[in-house]
Design goal:
It is a single chain. The protein contains 13 helices and 2 strands; from the N terminus they run αααββαααααααααα. 66% of the residues lie in helices and 3% in strands. It is flat, with a radius of gyration of 28 Å. The chain has a two-stranded antiparallel sheet. The protein folds into 3 domains: 107 residues, no CATH class; 149 residues, no CATH class; 69 residues, no CATH class. By secondary structure, the chain is mainly alpha-helical.
Amino acid sequence: MGWRRIWDREKPHKVGAVDAARKDDEWQWIWGTFWGNIENWWREDAAAHPNDRAPRRELLEALHQLVRKVSVQNGAEWAELHPDPSNVPVHLKGAAQILLLDELRATVEDEMTPDDEWDEIRAEVEEKMLKLIRRTHKEKKKFWGMVLWMQREKGWSDDRAVKLYRTRFGEAPVGLSSEHVEPDRAFVRYERDPRTLEASEPHPELSQWAHASATLAAFKQIDVAAGWAQSEADEDEHAWLRQIIAHVVRPAFAAGYRARSALGKEDECLAVARLAQLRGFASHGGPADLNERKKADAAERTDVVRAIALRLTSGTMPFPRDKAFIGNIQEELARFKPPIKISDSTVRRYLKND
């Protein structure tokens, strides 16, 4: 395989070893020549054998093994990115540059057309929005069952029952079962103060369900506009028209997402500050008395675990107790600095409803 012959014949010595006696600029030239030959090979191979992708795919995998992606963070956002060549050792700069340009990957993987890419993005978003809506329907049935229980056991009036349900979901309880469900502590807290479920006084037009429904409605509006445009065009122009629509819709969707993220940064500092406060139990300090500190730490741990669980389930309770869900929480805790290690049984205890 061409690149392997260059790899074995021309690399200065085992990748990763650098002779400290040599100057950086000398090593830069040596390794630059080596990676330049590797790049020349894959470009020539792509031009001569565009359909034989196996050798270039193997090279790409080898580069990924050499230059791992790095985790970056801004506030509450995380991402895995290729490192900048200026931030890697001298013997890996050329490899990092090849990965960063992303041209080798483009010769290995099929490039999606704009309409196929938009269809994939839309399908993923629709699936997530539908899950939120379906989950909300189950929540409605359960919530209404608890309201009916309060009517029967506590003598609530119809007006009080409907008002609480409407406050929570923004609509009347139509078409729901009449099964009574004993209220849990989350329901009791919400009935006393609706702000226990939302960050502020809840309004149905700004609820998660409303946002998910509005997203699906916007997608339908795109379909209507696309259908009208196609009805005005000849049939042989439909494929071209799909490409044009995707070229417009895809960046518009990305712009809306990025704009929302940018605006969210204004309030993100509050969430990050709260998270930093909750992480405080992992460091030294706190009450002087050891028993008091242990109690305070346990309380803080409970807050952190439940906050992570609420984010992972988008507020749905009771929380899952399966091993996969517990593992997701433990992965989040492992990202803390210093990392937080909590056993499966302890996580389940923290997630137990009050």
